Amino acid sequence: MTISLLSKLTTQVLDWKMSGVWLDTEGSLSSVITRMKKRDRVGQRRDDELAVYQDEREVMEFLRDFLIKSGISHPYLCQNQRTGVLALTVYRIKDIERVIQEVEPYILTLKKRLQVEKFRRSRSERYKRFSEVTN
User: Fold this and answer.
1) N or C: which end of the chain has fewer CB within 10 A?
2) Which pTM value belongs to this model?
3) Cβ within 8 Å of residue 54, ≥6 positions away
4) What pLDDT, in 10s, does the model give residues 79-107?
5) What is the CATH number for 106?
């Protein structure tokens, strides 16, 4: 599949549909809960990330450039030294929400749809808690 997509990428312009296919097949949307301790206080922080994994650098750079041109700020491209797999990651909540909004119609797998639903549910719960505190 990678070879055929790679050959298509060099001849076609990348769009949100193709990005959605990449996220659906080779990506993930996850939330990591980090335990934090500062002096006497202990708390938790939730870090959300949207990532696509691939070992073809040219494809990942092409996808990163598309995201930047589409207004997604700072998609982070790094390589795992042990496995050689590249990860293109988006950390900003605003950018994750924008990518999800654009690619959601093209996500077909149940696993990714559940990840999107879980992300949206956690965002709405945080908003509810924030408005309770501020009111």
Assistant:
1) C
2) 0.74
3) 2, 22, 26, 60, 85, 86, 88
4) 999 999 999 999 998 999 999 999 999 99
5) 3.10.28.10
